[in-house]
Amino acid sequence: MSIIEASSGTYRSRVDGTIVLSVEISPIHRAAALALFGMPGTPMALAALKAGYAMASDDQPAAPAPPPDDKPKGGERAKLCGIWCNTPDFRDWMRRHYPAAWRVNATHPAERENAASVLRAVLAIESRAEIDNDPAIAGQFDAIVRRPYMAHLESKGIPA
User: Fold this and answer.
1) Residue 24 main-chain phi, psi, to 5 deg
2) Sorting pLDDT into bands at 50, 70 and 90, what band is 140?
3) How many helical (H) and strand (E) elements, i.e. helices and strands, does the chain have?
4) If you average pLDDT over residues 4-25, what whole number do you get?
5) Is 96 helix (H, G, I), strand (E, B) or coil?
6) Is the dihedral of CA 81, 111, 156, 149 positive or negative?
7) Would you say the C-alpha torsion 20, 26, 31, 35 has a positive or negative sign?
8) What angle do the packed helices 147-155 and 88-97 form, to 10 degrees?
9) Per the confidence metrics, is the pTM higher than 0.70?
C-alpha cells in the first residue's frame, strides 16, 4: 500500500447519487500520485487524517480517535530499502561492499532478511523508518548506500 498526502477539493453529485470528489495533491508528490493514480478508474481507499474528523451519522456516534502512534513511519527511503533488499543484485552488492557485516549477520535464513539486517547494522539503526525520520541517518544512507549502489546500477547500464 502506498500513501500520498492530499486534501479534498471540490465535489459534485451525479444524477445516480455518486459523489465525484476532486483531490488536491502537492507538487512534491506529483510523480508518485501519477504513478499510482494516473489511469482513470484506479481503485483507491480514502481516509481522513485529522483525529476525530469523521462525522457521526444520525443513529450512531462517532468512534473515538485512536491514540497517536509513537513509532515513526518509514517513507520513500525505507520503501526503497525494502525493494532493494528483495533484489539479488543489491544483496550481492551489499555482500561485496560490507563483507564483515554480512558475515556477522549471516545467521538469518533468508537472504532478504540478511540484506536488511546488514543494512541496519551498517547504518547502526533498528528500523528502516529511522532513515526517513533522522536527517543524519538519511545523509549517511545516501552517502554510503544509495548513491554508490545507484552508480553501480548505472555502470551496468541499468537506469537508476
Assistant:
1) -105, 125
2) very high
3) 8, 2
4) 74
5) helix
6) positive
7) negative
8) 120
9) no
